[in-house]
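INFO  loader      accepted 1 record
INFO  loader      residues=282
INFO  predictor   begin
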Amino acid sequence: MRKDAYDIVTERIIEHLNQGVVPWQKGWIGGGRPCNLVTGKPYRGINVFVLGLSGYSSRYWLTFNQARKKGGSIGKGEKGTPVVFWKWLEKEVKDPETGKKTTDRIPLLRCYTVFNLEQTRGIKEPELADKPQISPIDAAQKIIRNMPRRPAMVPGRPAYDAGADIVSLPAFERFTCAEEFYSTAFHELAHSTGHGSRLGRKEVVEAAFFGDPDYSKEELVAEMAAAFLCNEAGIAPQTLANNAAYIQHWLKAFNDDRKMLVCAAAAAQKAADFILNIRYEE
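INFO  predictor   done
INFO  writer      dumping tokens
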């Protein structure tokens, strides 16, 4: 059976909710509401959430044809994101009593595909008109700067790529507040401590996937380590609130393994100590 536009967007939202991603909670702003690069029109309704799920730091989106007309292209292997719009159809209606004909406009939901500017090649992003005024926090900056054997840090959606040993983050000015940036940075750097060249946590070295107990444990380790580091920097951790959906996965994991919470906290402390370059005898 062919899926309609409602099915496509609903399944996409459910898919991300099941992955612990809350589409209406996001710590970076991407320069404002998602909008079309060519028309300048902001996306509305469900499209705001659908595009927000992507994790891209750019607010700009465009179709395949729009990218080509701009003199650019879509990167090889990039997958588009479905968005919907209302198309109005005109239908002639005849009054059964008078025989008079009138025209009704009937809304029909349609779906098409767009790509984020970060998925394109050869197209520059416009300058942000209104950049949020947030300032770096010296203590948090120092923690990141002084991390021993720190992985490369590049622009992009928040993630740690264990294979390439790279942490990606949206630009600092795209976050709603400095605490959001540092909490997110600490979370991803905590993941990186599990790399084989550092602490060698099994969950990172063996690449645990969503749904695995090891995945839930590694997420908990990263969250706890980020909280430890935020405390060290004297700021309030932000990522736990934004990733509250993970709690349901953690609760199941805790029920399956009563030792998990204590073990995760110990692993998180080791991760934080590594980032802080603290060594304790065990």
